[in-house]
Amino acid sequence: MTTRLELSGQGLTSLRDLPLPPSLEYLDLYDNQLTSVPEELWSLSRLRVLNLATNRLTAISPSIGALRQLHTLDLGHNELSAVPDELGDLSGLTEYLYLSDNRLTEFPAALCSLGRLKYLGCTDNRISTLPEDLSGLRSLRELRLYGNGLTALPESIGTLSSLRELHLRRNRLTSLPSSVGALSELRQLDLRENQLTSLPSSLAQLSKLDKLDLRWNKNFREPSWLADFEARGCMVLR
């Protein structure tokens, strides 16, 4: 039986007097007022799910790298300007990692070591560039990067061969690399509210794409092959 502790929305400002049994596997501290967490939390070696979203955290200890059983981690909606490189040591992180709505100015390069991760959300931060080599994220099925300041994507985006959804709304992209056409499993591509004027012809190869959202790209010139997408049932939003 999973040992759970669910304390969401309790107005907690500290965990100092909270017993944290070593057997804990599921810890939900969502929507409190925590500005920090005790170091002993990182010694919960059986922890599989940790939700610290919607608090007031400004930093995460490098000791988080000891949570090798963790498969789901939510650090969204805090005040983090950086995360420790030790996040890349979380080899058990297979399901979800949420870093959305923080104050990140850089995409944490250490995350590219998470070769088993399926879902990554880094939305609504201040990220302007991505690492040149994203190939380590080979198991990603969904990547959400909307609401940042991205001006370009690296060619290595095309190595994410398991990717099914790519969400890039509300950035500053003026073009896409041709390697996006190599994302053979892609079903959804959201490009709303960028500065795109064209698309690489390689995108015409995305045979499994069923939704392409191009709205609010002011000077976009529509390629002729979009009609072929629609003819086979892909929803194209302009």
From TrEMBL:
InterPro entries: Leu-rich_rpt, Leu-rich_rpt_typical-subtyp, LRR_dom_sf, LRR_domain-containing
UniProt KW keywords: Leucine-rich repeat, Repeat
Domain of life according to the entry: Bacteria
Pfam families: LRR_1, LRR_8
One GO CC annotation: cytoplasm
The keyword Repeat is assigned to this record: yes
SUPFAM superfamilies the UniProt entry points to: L domain-like (SSF52058)
Protein's UniProt keywords contain Repeat: yes
Protein name as catalogued: GTP-binding protein
Organism listed in the record: Amycolatopsis regifaucium
Species classification: Bacteria, Bacillati, Actinomycetota, Actinomycetes, Pseudonocardiales
